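Summary for the steering committee. The consortium agreed at its last meeting that each partner would contribute one worked example illustrating the joint modelling workflow. Our contribution is presented below. We chose a case with several input lines so that the handling of multiple components could be demonstrated. No manual editing was applied between input and output; the record is shown as generated.
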Amino acid sequence: MSEKHKEGHSKSYKKLQGMKTLEEILDVAISFEKTARDFYSGMIPKVSKNIRYLVEELAEEEQEHFDLFSSLKDSPNVKKQLKKRIKTPTEDHKFSDFVQLLDLGDKPDDQSILQYALAREDAAMKQYQELADNAPEGELKDTFQFLAFEEAEHKLELEKKYYEIIHSGGPQ
Amino acid sequence: MKKIEYKDKGSILNPLKNLQFFARKPITEKLQPRPASASYRGFHINDMDKCIGCSSCQKICDNAAITMVEVPSIAEDASKGIRNLRPAIDYGRCCWCALCVDICPTSAIELSREYVHTCDGDETDSYFVFPQESGIHGLNFEKGWTKTKDSDLLDRERRPMQEMKPEDRIDNFDEIVDGFTMEMAVEEASRCVDCGLCEDACPAHMHAPNYIRSIYEGNLEQAVEWMYETNPFSHVCGRVCTHICESACSLGRVGEDGVKTSQPIAIRWLKRFAMDHVPKTKIKQIAKKGKATKKSGQRVAIIGAGPAGLTTAFDLVKKGHQVTVYEAQPKGGGMTRYGIPNYRLPEDRLDQDIEVIQSVGVDIQYNVRIGKDITMQQLQKDNDAVVLAIGLQNGRSTRIPGSENKNVKKAVDLLRMIPKGEEFEVPKSAVIIGGGNVAMDIARSLARLQKQKFGKVGITVSALETLGKNFLADDEEVKESKEEDITILDARGPVQCVIDKKGKLTGLETVKVVSIFDDKGRFAPKYDDSDKQFHEAEMVVEAIGQMADISVLGEELTEELEWNRGRIQVDENGSTSVEWLWSAGDMVNGPDVIHAVADGHRVATDIDKYLRKEKKS
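What follows is the complete predicted structure of the assembly.
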C-alpha cells in the first residue's frame, strides 16, 4: 500500500466561506460527512486487518451522520429556513484547515486513525458552534447547536475509544 | 409464704370431679409472639446484601445445621468475593450456640429475640428456614445475639511485613520486602477461615486455602505441591501477583460493631514464604509429579517464553508432548523479567521458576525471533500446533508535539535495557507520563540510577488520573514511590514536550485535568486551560499503554486470522480462527501474570485435546 491516505479535496471545503444560505451550509455539512464515509470506507481494505474494525466503525458512524443531516435538511421546519441567509464567521475555515493539515500517511496505525478522526470531529464541532453563535435566536440557531452537539457526542465516544485502546493494553 | 399442703390426699371423690371436664370445649391459648430478653439466642436473621455466601457459618457449625443454598437471583462476582449462596438453617439440628454469628466476616448473620415457632404434623419442613432480615415469620423482631469486637472469632489484623527503609533502598535494586519468618507465616496462615473465595477469584484457581492450611501445619512441601497443581510461576506470583485473591478474601470485610478495619490474609506473601523455604531440588521433584511416562510423538511450538508461553509448555510437556519455546530475548520470563524491576522481583527467583519448568522437559531456544529467524509457515510445517504468546512488548506514545525528540523515551524500552545492563544516559531530571504500575516501575528504577549517579532523585510522575479516586497504580506503589522522593502530580494531562531552539528537550508542559470520567464512568476528560504548568526535565518517559508486535505473523496470516477489536480473536480455550494456532497471555487478555498463567493452562488443555483427536483420526 503506497497510496497516502488523505481525505477529499480542500477546494470543495473552501466553498464554505462563500456560502450564505442554510441550504448551502447544510449541503457542505452533508458532503463533509459523505466524503468522510467514503474516505473511511475506501481505507477498509487497505489497513491491516487487526485495526480494520476501527475504520469500519468510523465509516458506519459517518454514514449515520450523513443520514441524520440529510433528514434534517428534509425536515419541514428546516425546509422553511433553507433560503435564509446567514452571517458566516470571519474565520470560517475549520473544515478546510482540517483537510489541508492532516495526512494519515502510507500505513496508518490505530492511533493515527483515531487522532485523525478526533481532529476531524473537533473541526466540525467548532465550525457548527461558530455558526450557531452567529445565527439569530430561533430554529436556525437550534439547528446549528444540534449539529455541534452531534459532533461533540461523536468526539466524546472517540475519546473514550482512544483511552481504552491507547492508554491500556487495548480494549477488553 | 403460704405452705402448700401437698401431703393432703383430698377427697376420694376427686377423680369423679374431673369428669366435668369431658363435656367442656377445649380452649387453646395462643402463644403470642413476644421478644425475649436482650442478647437472646433466638431464630437467625440474615442480611442478604451483607452476606457474601462465604460459607464460614456452614463450616463452623458442629451440628451440620447449615446448608448453603444457591439463590440464582443474586449476582455472583468472584473477583469481589461474592457468591450467590445463602445459608439455610435446620432447626432440628441447631443448638443456638451462635458460632455462625461470631465467625461471620460481614456480620450478616445474627440471632433475633424471636423464639416461638409451632406447626402441625404436615409442616415439619417449616423448621428448615432460609433466614432473612425480617426473621422467621417476617415480624421484624429485634436483634438478639449479635457479634461484638469481643465475640468476633476472626483475627482481623495481618502480620506486618518488614521492608527496607526508603533511605536503605533508594540507591540499589535489592528486594524491598523481607518476607515472613516461619512464626509470622504460621500466625498469618492461622487467620484463614477456609472459605475459598480466594480460589474462586484467582484466574488460575490456585488452591490457596489448601496451601495456607499446609503452611499452618508446617508442611511447606505440601504447600508447594498445592501451588504446582495450578501455577508453575509461584515464585513470581509470590512477589508480584496482582493478588485478586486478597481483594476477594472474606477477612477483608468489615462488618461487626466496634471493628473499623479488617485485613485480608496475606496470601501472596504466604505463597512466597513457602516457595522460598523449600529447596529447589525438591521443587523440581514436585513439578515432575504427574508427568506422562509415554511420549505422544507430537510437537508443539510456542512463541514467547513469558508466563503464558511457559505455562502452556509446562502443561503440554507433562502430558507427553514435545515442546519447543522460541524466545527473541536472551532470557525467559517476558515482561516479568524485562518489565518488572529487581527490587520487586529478584532475577534469581524468576530464573528458578524457569529452571524448574525446564527441568520438566521444556526446551527454550533463546535469541530466536520468529518472523525473522524462522517463519510462521516453517513453524506450522514442523509442528502439530503453534502457540502465540508474545505479550505486549511495545510501548505506546502520546504523540503530543515534541514527543519525537530523542530524549522522549518509552518506559518499556528503558525497563528492558536495565536488566540487560544496556547503558543509556541517566537524566538528572525526568518526567514520567502515566499513572499505572509501569509508570511507577520506571520512575522508581530511574530514581535508583539517579541516586547512584548524582546522589539525589529528580523524578516527577504526571498522570491523568486522580490519586485516591481512579489512579491506576497500586496504592503501595504510590506510597513507596513517594517515600523514595518521587513527586506524583495527579490529574494533569500532557500538552507538549517542550523543545528549545537548538532542538534540545527542556521539559513537559501539562494542563490541569478537572475530571477524567463522566458520571457513567466513561472517559470524558475536561481540562482547565488556565492551569498550565511546565516541568523541567532532561528526559520525558511515556508509560501510557502497551501493544503487541504482531509483525511476527506476516501479512498473509494477519489477513487469514479473525480479530476482535485489535486483538487476535480466540475462543474461551485460546484457539484462534486458524486451526493450528492458539494465542495466550497479555496479547489477548491484557497485562497480568496470573491471567497469563490461567491462559496457559486453558490453551494447553485444548491443544492436548486437539492433538489426541488428531492422533485418532
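Chain A is about 65% helix and 0% strand. The helical segments of chain A are 10-14, 22-43, 52-74, 76-79, 94-101, 110-134, 139-166.
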